[in-house]
Amino acid sequence: MSSSPPPPDSGLPGNTGAPDMNIGCPHCQVWLAVPATEAGQTFACPKCGGHFLVPIPQARTFGGGLGEHPDYHEFTGKKIAAGVCGILLGAFGVHKFILGLNQSGSIMLAVTIGGIILGGCLIVPVLATLAMSAVGVIEGILYMTKSNDDFYETYAVKKKEWF
């Protein structure tokens, strides 16, 4: 038993071959590799003997689908990368793709590429590309100035696409 999550399928005695779920014991905070067959049942921690209900896993989806929200630490760990990419590469929507906001990232990418291709012919595509750059810079700054809790709530839970 350790304080960090065990690798998948590290197993407990009596594992029936079902994939393991990494769950922290609510009593002693030790990470356990609990067989998926135990989901929805009461489980006894082999270290402290405390009993707890093993949660039933839900489908994980990103980018606005149904299912549980991304892991808090995993998602907030992307905050600085998304912020820096928003400032430096914002016109291309890279910061959106990092956060799993693929629809708005695709729109930014398409507008920017269209602006680059048509920029020599018309002024409007150039302005659109500059606008996408400005959006990226503003969003990058917003990402990096939000607290982790506010960042997670806004972009992982509410899946706010713009600003």
Helix-strand layout with pairing:
Blueprint: E1 20-24, E2 31-35, E3 42-44, E4 51-53, H1 72-76, H2 79-89, H3 94-98, H4 102-118, H5 123-145, H6 148-157
Helix pairs in contact: 2-5, 4-5
Notable traits:
two-stranded antiparallel sheet, disordered N terminus, 2 domains, 6 helices, mainly alpha
Please explain how this structure is put together.
44% of the residues lie in helices and 10% in strands. With 163 residues, it is mainly alpha-helical. It folds into 2 domains: 1-57, no CATH class; 72-157, no CATH class. It has a two-stranded antiparallel ribbon. A two-stranded antiparallel sheet has the order 3-4. A hairpin with a 6-residue loop joins strand 3 and strand 4. Helix 2 (79-89) runs antiparallel to helix 5. The model is unreliable at 1-16 and 59-67 (pLDDT under 50).
Short description:
With 163 residues, this protein is mainly alpha-helical.
Report the total helices.
6
Computed over alpha carbons, the radius of gyration is: 22 Å
Structural class: mainly alpha
What ranges have pLDDT less than 50 throughout 5 or more consecutive residues? 1-16, 59-67
Largest sheet: 2 strands, antiparallel
* Envelope shape: elongated
What is the domain tally?
2
Classify the helix fraction into a percent range: 40-55%
How many extended strands?
Answer: 4
Give the strand content.
5-15%
User: Numbering strands along the chain, what is their spatial order in the largest sheet?
Assistant: 1-2
Mean pLDDT: 81
Terminal residue distance? 43 Å
Helix-strand sequence: EEEEHHHHHH
